[in-house]
Specification:
The complex is a heterodimer of chains A (about 180) and B (about 160). Chain A is α/β, with parallel strands linked by helices. Helices cover about 40% and strands about 20% of the residues of chain A. Chain A has a five-stranded mixed sheet with strand order 5-4-3-6-7. In chain A, strand 1 and strand 2 form a beta hairpin. The chains are: A alpha/beta (about 180), B mainly alpha (about 160).
Chain lengths: ~180, ~160
Amino acid sequence: MGKLIRFLPLILVIALGVVLYRGLSLNPQDMPSALVGKTMPAFELQTLNNSDKMVTQADLLGDIVLINVWATWCPTCKYEHPYLVDVAKDDQVKLYGLNYKDERVAAQQWLQQYEDPYVFSIFDDEGTLGLNLGVYGAPETFVIDHHGIIRKRFAGAIDTRVWRREFEPLIAQLIEEKKQGK
Amino acid sequence: MRLISILILTLVFVFSTNQASASPVDTYEFQDEVTKIRFQALSKELRCPKCQNQNLADSNSPIAADLRRELYELLQQGKADIEIVNFMVDRYGEFVLYRPRVSQLTYVLWFGPAVLILFGIIIVIVIVRRKPVPKEALVLTKAQQDKLNSLIKDK
């Protein structure tokens, strides 16, 4: 007993070291979304390209959906854009844009200039849908299943590595679920 | 003389940085004093999701401004504090609360310090109450006494 007590400080210091060392590799920006597992919030907004056309959450239902939050004021969105163009070629998922707190003309120009990967972009200049989705920056990408349930939120840029690690397994799982008619 | 100039420089520096980090000013108008106080209290309790070490009142980021506006509008609608907090938590998670609610996730946070203090008190009590070594044990045995005598004699 006496000997064990002598080693107690050493054991405590090692335990503390392990805890702090783990903390070094954690990303404080990586937070679970409060919305994972909930249904897509209701909205009724114009599309970016057509101010007469209103879209709602019902327009997204039925497919495995990616919603990409983007804006022309966001440099990281430019970085991930070519990867999104690639993602859009995959016909098992549908990619929609959420143009977040942006200007319509600038955003339309951006899509003309860099190619438009989205089925359509929701025009959310006031950030109301963004607020309901818990968006706090751009880019962010949400994965929504065929029942309209939010399955994942990813904050940050998508590239090949991120896509393989974060999205591919989940999308494969969702395709499987859809096939089984769940 | 030199000391004085250093002191003045320091003061100027402190003063200027204070100005640089001034909080954002919104021009919200409240119909009564209570709502204003509630607004100020809530914007201090809620954390800015983007700049994680600032509350809504301190942060200059666009999302913090949006959330202050939302907070203002919810107050105008006559929502209770708890409803507003739930609104924010539903969208941004427990994370937005500077004072997280007691749940399985936050037990360590809430009760950890108390447990550690209790642990410390127990250790102190154990050490203080430990029985001192009895006097008899301090008396030298016959053999030890002989050895001591012989050592002293050698000198």
